[in-house]
Amino acid sequence: MGAPKLTLGFDADDTLWHNETIFEAVHERYRALLGRYHDTETVDRTLFATEMRNLELYGYGVKGFTLSAVETAIALTDGKIPAAEIQQLIESGREMLAHPVELLEGVAETVAALAAEYRLLLITKGDLRDQERKLAKSGLAENFAAVEILSEKDEATYAAVLRRHAVAPEHFVMIGNSLKSDILPVLALGGAGAHIPYHLTWAAERVETAPAANGRFRQLEHIRELPAAITQWPT
Question: Which positions make up the signal peptide (predicted)?
Answer without folding.
Answer: none
